[in-house]
Amino acid sequence: GVSGLCSLSRMAGPLIHALRERICNDATPEFVMGLDSERASLSSLLKSSVIRGESNTVLVLGPRGSGKSLLTRLAIQDLHADAEVPKDSFIVIRLNGLIHGDDKAAMREIAFQLQLDKLAEAMSGEMPEADGTISAQGAASDAYLDAETSLHEPLANVAHTLLAAFREADPSRARCILFLLDEFDVFAHTGKQGLLYALFDAVQAGHAPMVVVGLTCRLDTLSLMEKRVLSRFSHRQILLFKCAPFEEYCTLFRSCLLPPRDFPDEQFAAQWTEHVDQLMQHEFVARALQDLYHTNHRDVRALHTLALACIAHVTAEKPFVQAADFYKSYTQQGADSKVAMLLSLSLLEVCLVVALNNLVARRESLINFEIAYEEYRKFALDPRHRSIEYFNKEIAFKAFQHLTSLEVVVPADNSTRTNTRFRGMRLMLESAQVADMLGRHAGVPAHVRFWAREGLAP
Predict the structure, then answer these.
(1) 3-state DSSP assignment of residue 13
(2) pTM over 0.85, yes/no
(3) Which of 27, 103, 168, 423 is 20 to 30 Å apart from 11, CA to CA?
């Protein structure tokens, strides 16, 4: 009755909040797709470094959305949960190439994350002396940052200075330092790769247990390193290019919608889970997930975005995710932005696009405005197409220029000497996009759709 509906609506709010928190805050998912062997490899390497004091370097390679950051997060969680690893036996330093691309800024960030604040402030240049050198204040900086240890020194010496200061700050514990370098390839593009050389040199020196884990999506990262940096790299690599089966892909999407295990209302959680299972069995949902899987099965962020859009449709009146909500979310997510832009074109511009697409389908060696206009003129002046308004060449050229400004058509070369009307152009649309535009554009007559069939043959 009414009381039951009110109870459902009251519980839907906290559950939606919990699901959003889990997806948006990068919480560790309850189901992880296809990272078991890679997780075991990285966890084993980190564990040996923390327990035995071994220093290592490793590179994690994989396309965006393949789980590189998740893999490192899971490996660190394994360290915390391992009974053989002493508590507080390691510290994690996180750097991002897009934020800390400058070597000096990265060194200051390392000092701050090692909680060597006075040393970091001295390195930041906030306390200059009259002679222009950087002074050090405090016990740690007095001992390890003298007049010769400045930012003008080789970064390798600065790195050794930081590690020495870190050991001096807490001599009773020799904690392992885990460096996580996200966007690793950006560090390889900066100057003389000072930060990478400093860290790899410190790892090779073995003065303190260290692990450097680089995360990147570029396969040519090793070729970007200088010889002096590459010679200090262990060449360990973890590759995330495996293709997970479609069943795991569907399970991952289902896990995004399932309530947390610690959700207080077990009865509502069971009802929600039942509706999610019914949703997964829907024919359109299965077909849409399969299309998404074949488009980009390695990027799970598309599933997270789709799940967020689905739960956004849940209201007090509709406390569960319905198939109609999934359909709306999927069509909005999969909408082609270029096709959406084409829906605002005039009929003349649509005709020019169809003419160009027909020329491309015929594999014409050259297409330009004059050839496209001749194609349009033949169509518009055909007695069978009297309902199509015919425009002269000057008006049509203005429409063609508008298509050029929208980058629907672009110049085929960089030549500027050729008359614009005779300049070779390239159509930046696939035939499927043209077909989608013609199917959704409200102002396109049936004659134009029939004319376009020539360029839309499968």
Answers:
(1) helix
(2) no
(3) 27
Taking alpha carbons only, the member of 112, 39, 23, 120 closest to residue 82 is 39
- Sign, CA dihedral 298-27-323-328, equals negative
Query: Nearest-5° angle of CA 97, CA 103, CA 107?
Result: 100
CA 453 to CA 456: how far, in whole Å?
Answer: 5
Q: Of 247, 187, 194, nearest to 218 (Cα)?
A: 187
d(C-alpha 273, C-alpha 122), whole Å? 56
Q: How many residues does the chain have?
A: 458
Bridge partners for 211 per DSSP: 56, 178
Cross-strand pairs, 216:
61
Amino acid of residue 50: V
Contacts of 367 by beta carbon, 8 Å cutoff, 6+ apart: 356, 359, 360, 424, 425, 426, 427
Distances (CA, A) of 181 to 69, 220, 412: 10, 16, 41
Q: How many other β-carbons are positioned within 10 Å of the β-carbon of residue 311?
A: 19
Single-letter amino acid, residue 321 = V
Distance CA 50, CA 56 (A): 10
SS3 239: strand
- Among 127-141, 153-167, 239-253, 271-285, name the most confident range: 271-285
pLDDT of residue 111: 81
For the stretch 112-126, pLDDT in tens is: 888 776 666 665 654
Cβ–Cβ under 8 Å, residues 110 and 95 = yes
Give me the pLDDT at residue 117, please.
67
Whether 174 and 89 have beta carbons less than 8 Å apart is answered as no
Per the CB < 8 A criterion, the answer to whether 313 and 321 are in contact is yes
Give every CB contact of residue 307 below 8 A, 6+ residues apart in sequence: 19, 23, 253, 256, 257
